[in-house]
Structure formats: C-alpha cells, structure tokens
Design goal:
The protein is built from 9 helices and 14 strands. Helix 1 packs parallel to helix 5. The chain has 2 domains: 150 residues, Up-down Bundle (Four Helix Bundle (Hemerythrin (Met), subunit A)), CATH 1.20.120.450; 274 residues, paralog of FGE (formylglycine-generating enzyme). A 4-stranded mixed beta sheet has the order 12-11-10-13. A 3-stranded antiparallel beta sheet has the order 1-4-14, covered by helices on one side. Strands 5-6-7 form a 3-stranded antiparallel beta sheet, with no helix packed on it. By secondary structure, it is of the alpha+beta class.
C-alpha cells in the first residue's frame, strides 16, 4: 500500500454523497477519537526506542522511523491545515523531503530529515491546529467533498494508522533488545470441531461500497458481481500446515512455483517464511526481538504471494480471487445484503477480531468465533493480511479521489491484492471492503493466506 501524497490533483466530483442520516457531531467525535488513537499508537512506536534507533535504517525496504513520524505530520499539514482549513503553510520547505514518490525508502536516510525532537514538535504543532479545524469544520452532506462526513479527517487517521503498521514492520525487522510487548491473543474454544473448509454458494452479491463515509477510492463504487460456488478454508493456513509443505520439498520442486517465484527462491536461497530458521531439528522464528518455536496452530506469517501460490498448488487448491474472498466475508444469504464486516455492521469488538496491535501476533486458527461470517469462515478480519489471486484493478465506475496517486498509478498486473487486515491494522483502516496491495515478492509485511477450490 502506498503513502499519501500532497493534495495537488483533487478531483472535483470524485466522492459520492455520504449515507443519509449521518449526524455531523457524531462524525466529528468519531474523527477526533480516530485521530487521537492513531497519535497514541504513533507515540508508542516511536517512544519505545532511543534516538539512534529512530534515525537508523533497519532495512533498505523500510524508512527510518523518524521519517515516518515527520511524514505523518507533513501529510496532516498539507491536507487538514492547508487544504481543508485554508491555513498558511507551517513548513513548506520540507514537503519534498517527505514526498514518498520523490524519494525511495532506501535513499531516505541520506536526506536532511528532521531530528527526532524536531519531528515530534512539528507533528504535535500540526495536530493542535488540525483539531482546531476539526472543531469548526462543516461535516454535512452538502459540504465540500473533502469535508463531507469528515472524510479528510478519516483519511488522515487511516494514513497515520497505515504508517503505524509500517513502523511496526520496521520494529520486526530491527535487531537489538525487545522494545514492544503485548499479551497473547485469546485461544480458540471450538477449533477442534470446525470443518476444514466451508462452501460458499454461487450467485451474485454486492462488492465494494458507495455508502461507507471513509472508504477510499479503490473500494468504490458498489457493484454487482457473479461468483460461482466454491470451497474456502475456514481459517488461514497454519504454520503447521505450511511446515508440511516445506518438509515435502516445497522449496526445492519447481512444479509448484510461478516462474518468477521460482527465480526468487533460487536467487535468495529461500527455504521457509521470513524470520524462520531451523536449529537442532526444530523450526524457530524471530518475533519482535524474541526467538521462539514456530507455533503449529497459528496462521503462517511473512510469506510472499509466490509462496502462498506455491503452497496452494502443492495442496491441490488455489488462492481465492478477491471477489470470492469478499463474498465469503460479507455476503449474508439470509438477507441478500453485503455486511460491513463478517459479523455484521457494527465496528469491531475485541472478541470479534485481532486488530490494533493488541497482541503482536496472530491468534490461533479457530479463534474469535463471534467474528465469523455467515459463510462459516473465520478470522477474515485481523490476524494476517490474506493474499488473493487477483491483480489490483479498479472497480467499474472508479473515480480517483482525492488524488490519483493513492490507487490509480498502482493498478495493473504488477501488484496483487491482499484482504482482511492483520493484527497490526487498526479498525479505522480495516473493513470488509478495504483493499490492500503489494508486490508479489514482499515478505516483510504481515501477510498470510487461505486457500480455495472450485465446488
């Protein structure tokens, strides 16, 4: 998923009217809560390490943490202060430094970045002014598209939470002492009785949304899709199941691999998911600075699309399409409706999904029974991002908003779609229609998968 960019290409009519009956004051409170929650998490991720760790580049795949911190403030300044609020620019001279399209991550340490104390002060100054603007912004449906239903404030909260997930990835990649801790997620109560797969009946359903007020452009508009009947794994593929693929020679047999994936395996000598290693006959993994045995019944994590696709072929199955995934997650056959989430239309509760960095790991397969979809599939929201077989493409009737670089420039066969969100995703940036995308080689992200087969 990309970073936000400066508001230079706003489309005049890119945002459809918000749903009726939205109370502007309730939306104002929702926006305030989302912004404060994001900033509290940003503080946890940046205050847990010293200045040397903030300015270091822990992997060429990732920015220094201090870049993300100032970038969060800069995007908030550009969108909320300058564009929505019409305020004079605070730090226009740093816009170029924090333009994600201008500087690749590997080059960012060489830039004259704000130092940690200066970056914190800047982000704090911007936030204070942004909250003043929120207090007086008209959020009614007839207002400007960016303000309608609080969209701009929701967009910035989502942007910050997306960078918080990126910073959590950086924490996983860094070496050194443990900086973050969290309790274990709840254990499943009926995993032993769950079927391996569920049948999702064929027929039409509504994919995407035209009503979710903070949905991003690539989630829009709602449209009808026809999906043939298929079977889908009840839970994401576990480490134990993936270990059997490894031990059956999965990484040494080109039959299972797309040609580009096989080239990746040979070039990098891959033999297991990222962060796994074998010692004294046992598979171990490194997780946020702790080395531990690989848990058999936890969803596998840190696998690329090529690895997920190879496993599915080896198992005699396939990855689900994006439309199949969304139908399994949202379609309610009893009413014919598409739900906001697998469990219904209410925001996620702690017993429904593993979100928000509460646990720093996926829950065991079969957890969160209260979050299961009408299809019977579980853990479709939270735990791990799930690779699908689909390329990242626009929906029929797509209109870029508020700038084409958020989604439009990434459409095409180069990026694969991930769905569902991981334990590192906050609920503001995760819903049944939310679409993530990445290169099929990516392994540092919190990615897993489940498999499907034709009915």
């Amino acid at each position: 998923m990309t970073d936000n960019r400066a508001p230079s290409t706003i489309t005049a009519d890119g945002f459809p009217p918000g749903p009726g009956g939205h109370d502007p004051e309730a939306l104002r409170q929702r926006a305030l809560d989302a912004l404060l929650a994001a900033r509290a998490r940003t503080a946890t991720l940046t205050d847990s390490v010293d200045d040397g760790e903030l300015t270091a580049q822990h992997s060429p795949l990732m920015s220094p943490l201090v870049w993300d911190l100032a970038h969060i403030g800069n995007q908030e300044e550009q969108w909320l202060l300058r564009t929505v609020g019409g305020r004079e620019a605070l730090r226009p001279e740093i816009d170029g430094l924090y333009d994600a399209f201008e500087h690749p991550r590997s080059a960012r340490p060489s830039l004259p970045l704000l130092a940690p104390t200066e970056a914190r002060t800047y982000a704090s100054d911007v936030r204070g002014r942004a909250l003043d603007i929120l207090e007086g912004a008209p959020l009614h449906e007839g207002g400007r598209p960016l303000e309608r239903a609080g969209f701009a404030f929701g967009m910035i909260a989502q942007h910050e939470q997306q960078h918080d997930e990126t910073m959590l990835i950086t924490h996983q990649l860094r070496s050194g002492p443990v900086a973050l801790t969290a309790p274990a997620p709840p254990a499943p109560t009926d995993a032993g009785t769950l079927p391996d797969e569920v049948l999702v009946p064929g027929g039409p359903f509504t994919m995407g949304t035209s009503a979710e007020p903070w949905a991003l452009d690539n989630e829009r508009p709602a449209h009808r899709r026809e999906v043939a009947a298929f079977h889908l794994d009840t839970a994401p593929v576990t480490c134990g199941a993936y270990r059997r693929f490894i031990e059956d020679g999965g990484y040494t047999d080109p039959r299972w691999w797309a040609p580009e994936g096989w080239d990746m395996v040979r070039e990098h000598g891959l033999n297991a998911p990222l962060f796994w290693h074998r010692d004294a006959g046992q598979w171990l993994r490194r997780r946020f600075g702790v080395t531990e045995p690989v848990p058999e019944d936890e969803p596998v994590l840190h696998v690329s699309w090529y690895e997920a696709d190879a496993y599915a072929r080896w198992a005699g199955r396939r990855l689900p399409t994006e439309a199949e995934w969304e139908k399994a997650a949202r379609h309610d056959p009893a009413t014919g409706r598409s739900l906001r989430y697998p469990w219904g239309d209410t925001d996620p509760a702690p017993d429904q999904a593993n979100l928000g960095q509460r646990h720093l790991r996926p829950a065991r397969a079969g957890a969160y029974p209260a979050g299961r979809a009408p299809s019977g599939a579980g853990q479709l929201i939270g735990d791990v991002w799930e690779w699908t077989s689909s390329d990242f493409l626009p929906y029929p009737g797509f209109v870029a908003f508020p700038y084409r670089e958020y989604s439009d420039v990434f459409f095409g066969p180069g990026h694969k779609v991930l769905r569902g969100g991981s334990f590192a995703v906050d609920q503001v940036a995760c819903r049944g229609t939310f679409r993530n995308w990445d290169l099929p080689v990516r392994r540092q992200i919190f990615s897993g998968f489940r498999t499907a087969r034709d009915a």
